[in-house]
Sequence to fold (350 residues):
Amino acid sequence: MRNLLAITLVAALTSCSSAGGVVPTAAVSPAARPDEPVTVARDLAVPWAMAFLTGGDALVTERDSGRLLKLGRSGQVTALATIEGVEPDGEGGLMGVTVREGHVFVYYTAAEDNRIVRYRLGETGISEPKVIVRGIPKGAIHNGGRLEFGPDGYLYAATGEIGEGELAQRRDSLAGKILRMTVEGAPAPGNPFGTLVYSLGHRNVQGLAWDAAGRLYASEFGAGRYDEVNLIKPGANYGWPEVEGRGDNPDFVNPIVTWTTAEASPSGLAYAGGSLWMAALRGERLWQIPLDGDGSPGKPVAHFTEVYGRLRGVTTAPDGTVWVSTSNKDGRGSPRDGDDRILSVTPRRP
Fold:
């Protein structure tokens, strides 16, 4: 009996770390430290998201100004447009951006809601705006905002529950969800409920990324205890507001990794070089999470802690580097000379 109790105690101690983090389940090599970042652009104002164009130029959104910027390969920054209808407020404003087949898709906070709008992209600007999703609840906090095309060709959008946790559990609400849609804003074929909703029970998803096998991961703000990275499955419920972090409730899916909110407060997420790369706002660091071939996480490693301040956007560049944006002008940071900036990080495989 004593041996059985000892085994049970060891198992309990190894199921999570003292900070609430899920113990690595993958036998991957330790993460290799990336090269020191190179500044790609500077003197921006709350760059929220980045998306690459064919040829290597990038589009960048500024949350509070509503500007859509074009960042050239040599570092020159030009204002492509100021998005009409953006009404920044609190954590809302011009947020996600992605591109597909000559069109730009943005997620922004308008007067009455959060919405997704598609534009035609030209050499000198954007035109032909079309709202493809409207009525996403808006609030002073937790507006979500990430937009990404998945390897299946459909558009995914992350939404927040605007501080009203019960919305995350309601299938008839677009708040606190990951949405999946066509380029026209219709529910994508195969969606689990026949609506835009792909997964539910989220507090405020800020990052979406797919690994080499096409598995979808999401980074998500907790409340006062644990932040999360989740492996997303269609129709799955991730527990908010019933569970924060790991709950081991059969009705909800556990995160694959958690941190204390002081260590993370996660935003953007990308995949490169066999690892997930996650920006931390309050934590002021770039987290690297090595992945095994089956998608299981190795031990997360923090890079550049408190060197560049609050980190928000993360995306993988066509050359395999990881671009990271700072967010020190968002009202919660301490701006430094050159802020806000976009950094290029060269990852090394574990």
In short: Residues 226 and 298 are 18 Å apart (CA to CA).
